[in-house]
Amino acid sequence: MKIAVIDVGTNTTRLMIFDCENAAEKKPATSGALMIADGGKTYSFKTLYEEDTVTRLGENLSSGTLQASAVERTLKTMKRFRDKVRKSGAEKIITVGTSALRGATNKQFFIDAVKGLDITLEVISGEDEAKFAFSGAVLGREISNDETALVIDIGGGSTELVFGRGNKLEKWLSVNEGAVRLTERFIRSDPPSSAELAEMQNYVDGEINETKTSLSLKRIDHGIGVAGTIVSLAMIAQRLRIFAPKKIHGYNISFEEVERLYHLLAASTVGKRKTIRGMEPGRADVIPAGTYLLLSIMRSFDIKKLEVSLNDLRHGVLWNEIKK
């Protein structure tokens, strides 16, 4: 069975098409499939197609409403995604919206417009976003029941910090700040001025320190990072010319490397950032803010190295569907 998952985020709209099956009922999955045992059953799924497009749905969302140009960009991308899904023969499309749509006063207009594309969009809560990010990130990982993990999901409009033991979620917090929100709030110069950066850093550190106090974690065995900002940093750190899943998934990025990249990115103009090998051009304007968010989290929670995972919210949404 082919299932497509679309994640409509504040900065990026992302599509994955999976080939899924109950391996107990069929022959073993083809090479490259992820095998998951659960409840006496074995499932497999393989990524057939993946595409991320920067649509910036959450542009200028401080006004409280989705902007017409942002809606138009996102709908155009979703129409293209729908056509790809239909061509693939997928039997189901699961579409979720996150931070930008949770906070927009005119979100129903967007939901209705998406329905006109024959796509049903569900705006998920911060709790569900955290749950899906965690279940996706730990999917297929061998983590013993006494080992702990903190999953960090930095989006355009919010950041999810999700803590679990083994593959069981225990605590989570959604910080209503992401790379796009922080950039629009604090960054007005190109490159950012030292005063703008200092103001942003002080604000972020305060938010993350409050989050650390609220979560009150005693031990973190594994730090796992997902989503665009963190994947982009893994690509830049390795100077990758193209998206290379085998080099990105499982890559360990150190605190020192994140700190080095932050200073490099913050000191560069948007135009200069776009020329950096590994940089996705559509993220060039917001990546300093996203990078500092990660830096502050790693410092506050004493994470020396972060494992980058390409299994994210979309995998969690898929896993939730498969188990129904």
Explained architecture:
- With 324 residues, this protein is an alpha/beta fold.
- Helices cover 41% and strands 25% of the residues.
- It contains twelve helices and twelve strands.
- It has helices spanning 68-88, 99-103, 107-115, 126-138, 179-186, 194-215, 228-238, 245-248, 255-266, 270-274, 287-300, 313-322, and strands spanning 2-8, 12-22, 34-38, 41-54, 92-97, 121-123, 148-154, 159-165, 168-175, 222-226, 252-254, 305-308.
- The chain has a six-stranded mixed β-sheet, with helices on both faces.
- The two termini are 14 Å apart.
- The relative contact order is 0.15.
Can you give keywords for this protein?
single chain, 324 residues, alpha/beta, 6-stranded mixed sheet, 12 helices, 25% strand
